[in-house]
Queue: 2 jobs
Job 1
Amino acid sequence: MTEPAALRCDEAQVLVSAALDGEASSAEAAIAAAHVDTCEQCAAWQDSVAALRRRTMLRPGRSDAAFVAQVMSDARPARLGRGGWMRPVLAWCAVVIGVQSIGPLVLGEADGASAHLARHLGASGIALALAMLYVVWRPHRAFGLLPFVLALFAATAISILIDTIAGERSALAESTHLAELIGTVVLWMMAGSPGTDRLVSWWHHRQAGRGGLRTTR
């Protein structure tokens, strides 16, 4: 019976590395150990790799303020205001909007609109109220729902403007949308007031540019 061919150092080191990572079989680990026992060079290499692996795995964590700030900014954590006042205000807006929308949805009546259109308006109002109540329950969802609420209120605001200019509705009559305005603003604040950082950065850059122009004159 022929003896197995001697293991070369590079082959042994591959098996040693796999054994250190827990990826070698018991037979491969035994072969590597047998080679290391008879090879000073591979034994030294194994010790150095094992020491490097320990240092890498047990390296103490370091706090990076810039990285933490970036992660928190991307995560968009909810901001509830001092004393958590934003949640009850948003809940109040949701209840008002929901109550205002029940009549159009159930009865099909909304300031002279057809029953079909009135029910559509009522359904939109109920959907908005439920979205706001969901954010009251799960504040961290504020940023995700913000595009829907902003788009809905923007469309409503355009219709209010057109009706007011045309004289079809008075400003007092349009005050029924006040709860929608307040709720949208509060939702935006809970979502972290997105866009303000860019606006402030743009303003500072603009002011710095003006200052630079003054100094060069």
Job 2
Amino acid sequence: MAIACLCLRYSNAMTTLHPSERPQPPSTLGWRLAHVGDQAHLCRLITAMALESENRQLHAETLSAGVAAVFEQPSRGTYWVLCAGEAPVGCTLITPEWSDWNNATYWWIQSLYIEPAHRGLGGFELLLVELEKSAPAGHVPELRLYVEQHNQRALRVYLRNGFEGQHYHCMTKTLSH
């Protein structure tokens, strides 16, 4: 089975668009840190993302336990929620990865999903602004993400916002236990 993904990395120094040049989202659209009360929304959005991006049906109980585990042990990551007004319309999980090579923590953008009706409104750009504001406190030099090679729309968005392809291949090995 071939793994079709592309690792992209992003660094503030390589941004192609200055934050002031990025498309401005509607004033009712904004990211906030997720809280425990968002778990049902996160599960709904992550389920939609898995179905759309990989045609995968997630096991609801497993996903719910996985989302809860992040809130129970914050070192696993931080959820963010994109809201249109008060309604959650998108989410992402930011997970840390320690780099001994660089004595720094990278942030991985995972489970990024924005409902179709709210795409193209600058929500991703707004996320980058929030992450760029938060990164210096954690001494984070770089953002990273995986994207399906066939997801051309997402690739265009990421490349337009300063991400670049890397020479890495994504490989997995399923373990049985």
